[in-house]
Design brief:
about 700 residues, five-stranded mixed sheet, 22-stranded antiparallel barrel, mainly beta, about 55% strand, Maltoporin, Chain A, about 5% helix
Length: about 700
Amino acid sequence: MYLPPHTAMLTAILLSLSLTAHAAADIEEDDDLKAIYGDKLTVSIATGSQKSLRLAPAVTSVITAADIRAMGATDLDQVMETVAGMHAEKIGANNFAAYVLRGIINELNSQILVLQNGVPMTVLLTGNRSRLWGSYPLQHISRIEIIRGPGSALYGADAYSGVINIITKTSAEIRGTEFGISAGSFSTRDAWIQHGGKLGSVDVAAYFRAGKTAGHAEIITADAQTGLDRVFGTHASLAPGPANNGHDAVDAFLDLSYEKWRWRSNFILRDNIGTGTGTSSALDPSGKLKSQRLTSDLSWSDNHIGQDWCLGFNMSYSQYLQRLPSPLVLYPAGVTFPTGNFPDGIIGAPNTSERQLRASAYAVYTGWRDHQLRVGIGHDDLNMYDTYEFKNFLITPAGLPQPAGAVQTYTGALAFLEPHRRKVDYVYAQDEWQFAPDWNLTAGIRHDNFSDVGSTTNPRIALVWEAAYNLTAKLLYGQAFRAPSFNELYSINNPAQRGNPSIQPESIKTLEAALIWQARHDLQAKFNIFQFRMKNLIRTVPNAIKGTGSSYANTNSQEGHGMETELNWQASRQLRLSGNYSYQVNTDQVTNQDAGYAPHHHVFARADWQFAQDWLLSPQFNWVAGRKRTFGDLRPPVADYKLIDLSLRTNAGAWEVSGSIRNLMNVDAREPSFAPGSITNDIPLPKRNFYIQLLYKM
């Protein structure tokens, strides 16, 4: 693997001077700041059972609830930005953030798997956690475990570039009742309550939150309609104009556990979700969307079935609804196409209903000396059972919108998508073998059989060597896949892209090497390099008949390589410095050009300074650099940006008060808009903004 000389030099500088690493310090000292960081020494996401983070057979990160409080984060996107190798990149439509890991990105962010307590949050329409994500509450998060790299050998579909598992708090972690309110810029306000205790012999953890925000309204100077106006001589574009980034939120969680049983349920509502920069990259200030997600899972586990066995199972039910209380204006009033004029604009409102049933079971056997064997089976029944659409247009054979009079309801073959169902059966096996005192080999394989896109088998192997008492080395290889979304397979009557039932899953093969060095009791460094090759990437291509639009197809391959460095230094009893540097290059194998969008260089650094009793000041720095356009996009390169944030927290008895300033220097920071560049001047990020939070613990 080749790394440019300047990268190697920068790595050396960072390893010597930088302030790194969010991914977990193996520091065991009794100091004033220990309570700030929580338990970051173990991780379960890498093998399915608790494992020392240092010895886990994967490149992993752990973020605790205490970490989140220290950084003053108000949104999950801000937390993800602190992870080595990851960038939370705003896409534009619905103010959605793509969690870009190691430079792997598509417009829907469907190449990373997001779990909540081990249950996938993937929606069938888009194959991601939903474009109508809005935000995710942080107060009820216990920890976030992240695999940076493929995870399909254990987690199956979509564990492609990585896996994020959001783990919510237990009764023991909450211990009592907590009330909180917060307010800030963009008319943002939240209120929540959570409780942890016992109801007889049942452990109870409960959480409720309600909030809303108008969202930042940075000005979009030109949009897709601007280009159409130039072609047809119209003046329909609403640009320059503000982005539509608001939403309302309601979250409710309930966690009941009794002996070996655990039942968790949650309800997530996002209402009045703005269209961001527009669903079709044309400003839409009136469109509103709504998503409703209900998830319930029941699990049982026994770690002592006889002398050598551990057994467990999980059953989950999830329902996801997408509704549009105010239809989307795909293009504004007065837009003209060769098919005719739309005096009220092109209006559409796609609605979907889906339910997901999942069942899985596993067994762990430790009776074979120096081995821990894990086997599992599972079945998923994934059903998009209802689809319908309000719209005022139809699609011509050429793929263009044609006026159809007043807004009407369309179902079946006239809607954007017909109902579809997918069933998945899978089996996996994994062996953790300690074949020498300082050597551990983990090998695993999983086979998935899909009712609609065939089958796939994905292995992984990891060699971990404790080279010295303070040095661990890892060599990792893994394969993963991404199953096509229902939109990519079955979309019809779409003016931009049409589905293709013949496409196959994307695949990736990744090779990694990692070092973890505990240089001193108060200083830890991490370094890893990686190389991967992706095949069968799903993209849109022009149809064979010219002028009939485009369809999804398996097209090009992509290769990537890079490195990540992390450092964590407990400089004193009152000061901890942390940060990371990431470098990546991704190359499209068809054009032999940069794959675009993702930063080649990313630096994050944070200081946590307890300057007085019960006072914590945390400044942080975020540098995003080296983002290139894709082949054929002739716009100037995207400007780099450097952001400084500041948070302050204090405790007074049962009260806690915290405040944060984001983008302290009021930088004009932007994320690249996707080609062909309809949002010409890219996606603006929020300017300087403020938040304050008040919390009371009973």
